[in-house]
Amino acid sequence: MAEIRFDPIDRQTVVIAPERSKRPKDDFDSSKQNSKKCPFCPGNEDQTPPENFNNGDNIKNWTIRSFPNKYPAFTQLENGNNSGIQDVIVESDKHDINMGDFSQKHLRELLTVYKKRFESIKAKKSIKYILLFKNHGLMAGATLEHPHSQMVGLSFIPRNVEKRIAELRKYYNQNKQCYYCRLVDKTEKIFENKYFALIAPPVARFSYETWILPKNHQQHFELSGDEQLSDLAEILLKQIKALNMAQDKPAFNILLNNGLYDSNHDDVFHWNIQIIPRVSFQAGFEYATGMYINQVEPDRAVQELKRNTLLV
């Protein structure tokens, strides 16, 4: 069972989860060998917990499926203060496909699955916060090559999220505008469509880091309609393709930052997607100081990615 510990000096939260060490791990240089034993590949459905979603007409006929994480960092306990729900969402039946090679139709279907799982998890009364993330590649923390995302619903609000909400509230009180809405209004766009804008944040922590922001103020991703999800699929696919061109298919993390469920921060919080390439390591300086060193000036990254989006 996982245990949460809190450092009173650094005010950091640490999850002690020994079960996570039992996760299977791929050799990322041996893709064909990995696919034969991969628990996420078609034909190996019995190696995962029972699914909670399948977009096919039976257990063996699918292109996207979802199930509880077999090696959770949080235990699902009723009324537990530190409990959580963890899903794995297998994004494709193809073992080694890059998200940039998805069709827009398939990515649109995947986003719909995300929406359905958000709706299902938030229905649990104990859930206060849900995070969706994707680790692609060894440098981004992936242990299995097969494309997948993870969704974690928590019965508590992570400290970093509390701090971010507090700072967003201060910004709103001082400027009478949501911080993210201001970014949409004032920041140069890499690409935009009717509902979304793709930008590089002015204070990007990582080389080629980008954010996708709804143009209209919205607190929760799962409130997105069908037309919005189609636009989101278009802009996310363009960015992954542009990033693959710029950095030769790098490892990356995708974070979908969503609003809270136990209180209303609708005026200050604006859901967003962060795409973080892992093209360099964090090392001693970053860990010691909490500061980031970005080797690519954000304006240069904007111009390069903007050119690439015209080619994909």
Explain what you see:
There is one protein chain. This protein is α+β, with helices and mostly antiparallel strands. It has one domain: HIT-like (HIT family, subunit A). Helix content is 29%, strand content 20%. The protein is built from seven helices and twelve strands. Strands 3-4-5-7-6-11-12-10-9-8 form a ten-stranded antiparallel sheet, with helices on both faces. Strands 1-2 form a two-stranded antiparallel ribbon. A hairpin with a 4-residue loop joins strand 1 and strand 2 (12-16). The longest helix is centred in the C-terminal third of the chain and has 22 residues, at 226-247.
Give the key terms.
two-stranded antiparallel sheet; single chain; 312 residues; HIT family, subunit A; globular; 10-stranded antiparallel beta sheet
Mean model confidence by pLDDT: 89
The major beta sheet can be summarized as: 10 strands, antiparallel
CATH superfamily descriptor:
HIT-like
Task: Give the helix proportion (percent range).
Answer: 25-40%
Beta-strand content bin: 15-25%
Shape call: globular
Secondary structure class reads alpha+beta
* Sequence of secondary-structure elements: EEHEEEHEEHHEEEHEEHH
Whole-number total of structural domains:
1
- Please give the oligomerization state of what you see: single chain
CATH class: Alpha Beta
Write the CATH architecture name: 2-Layer Sandwich
From the N-terminal CA to the C-terminal CA, the straight-line distance is 46 Å
Number of helices: 7
Uncertain spans, ≥5 residues at pLDDT below 50? none
In CATH, the topology is named HIT family, subunit A
